Amino acid sequence: MEKISPLSKPKPVILTCAQPTGNLTLGNYLGALRNWSKMLEEYECYFGIVDLHAITVPQKPPVLRQNVYSCIAQYIACGLDPKRCHQFVQSHVIGHTELAWILTCMTPIGELQRMTQFKDKAAKLGFKVSNEPESQGIKFTHDGVRAQASINAGLLCYPVLMAADILLYNADLVPVGEDQRQHLELCRDLAGRFNQKYSETFTIPEPYVPSTGARIMSLADPLRKMSKSDDNEKATIFVLDEPDQITKKIGSSVTDSGTEIKVSQDKPGVSNLLSIHSSLSGIDFPSLEDHFLGKGYGELKSEVSELLVETLRTVRESYYELINDKTFLDSVLKEGAQAAQKRAFKILNKVQRKIGLPDRPR
Predict the structure, then answer these.
(1) Residue-level pLDDT at 6
(2) Exposed, middle or buried: residue 137 (CB in 10 Å: 0-12, 13-18, 19+)?
(3) How many Cβ atoms from other residues are within 10 Å of residue 194's Cβ?
(4) pLDDT band with cut points at 50, 70 and 90 for residue 217
(5) Catalytic residue among 11, 225, 262, 350
(6) Which of 121, 234, 350, 354 is catalytic?
(7) pTM of the predicted protein model
(8) Do 13-213+325-354 and 243-321 have matching folds?
(9) Which of 15, 53, 89, 228 has an alpha carbon 20 to 30 Å from 265's alpha carbon atom?
(10) Cα separations (Å) of 13 from 39, 166, 309?
(11) Which entry of 128, 197, 228, 295 is annotated as an active-site residue?
(12) Catalytic site residue 60?
């Protein structure tokens, strides 16, 4: 057995989680997953599939269950080698909800009501948080009618569960997008609040910002980020799209006025296609602009389509092989849950003891 040097330090822990909400997009792949796969050597990585977060909105049980397997298969197909990281399902690990409850009891409700994502999600359901002072409960307006209890408490407390997901593993670093930075700040506040009240317990997590990572925009509206929930099916490339689907979507993608192919604020459509090309080919923008000098948008779209088809072919073929091997996927999730549980129990037992809960019977 190889001996570990007493001078060797444990790798920093990175934790990142995602909901099992169907197919991953090209934006997920180029903006996140490819960077995650590069972290495996330098960090101890935990990748969580947060199925408990998913149920803050209505779910069909068979679909949710299948989406968990689909998500893990896509992760592996996109380069997350299960031999070099821990991939687990949130509901398989004891501690997420227990720690979330403890942290909820330390979180002023006003902090949760101010969360931008809560307001946005409420708005999507047709509600708007009222600014009028109220004596009881949270009040909303909906189609001009005052309403209460139409939005579940899980949607409001979602950020606390997210904080528990992170703090349960004492993660040093957390990859976050701009839409999650506010949640990470709440997590950091809660960790500091607990440490101050009960002594040093939690690591204060830092945001992990990769050195490279493409921000892929909608093909139909390049001023918006590419999203799996976009109503326009032509706006989003999914990693499991067939070659003809990819070609059609890129072919119908929005470009810009004029004919010059360059990266520019006034050419968001062309800039988006060049960003995809650069991410896949490794060619920098100035070189691409020289390459396409005097050429038309049709040639740009043709090259981007070819690069996408070839890049995603391996991902798609690997996925369909994996999704049909449930035994293997179960083994990956079992190992991941065991590793996650071992780490989670250490922090959970410490937290429960510090706040005065009796030790668990053995």
Answers:
(1) 47
(2) exposed
(3) 21
(4) very high
(5) 225
(6) 121
(7) 0.85
(8) no
(9) 228
(10) 10, 10, 34
(11) 228
(12) no
- CATH fold of 13-213+325-354 reads Rossmann fold (3.40.50)
List the chain domain ranges.
13-213+325-354, 243-321
Residue 313 has pLDDT above 70, yes or no: yes
User: Active-site residue 295, yes or no?
Assistant: no
Which conformational region is residue 47 in: left (phi greater than 0), alpha (psi within -120 to 50 degrees), or beta? beta
Q: Using the predicted structure, report yes or no on whether residue 231 has a pLDDT greater than 70.
A: yes
Q: What is the CATH number of domain 243-321?
A: 1.10.240.10
Look up 121 and say whether it is catalytic.
yes
- Confidence grade of residue 14 (pLDDT, cut at 50, 70, 90): very high
Sheet arrangement for strand 206-208: 86-89, 44-49, 13-18, 173-175, 206-208
The one-letter amino acid code at 175 reads P
| Of 13, 287, 27, nearest in space to 165 by CA | 13
- Rounded CA-CA distance 202/1 in Å is 33
pLDDT in tens, 138-178: 454 544 444 444 678 888 899 999 999 999 999 999 987 76
Residues 282-309 pLDDT 10s:
999 999 999 999 999 999 999 999 999 9
**For every residue of 107-171, which 3-state class applies, written as one string?**
CCHHHHHCCHHHHHHHHHCCEEECCCCCCCCCCEEECCEEECCCCCHHHHHHHHHHHHHHHCCCC
From 213, 304, 299, 297, select the one nearest 254 (Cα to Cα).
Answer: 297
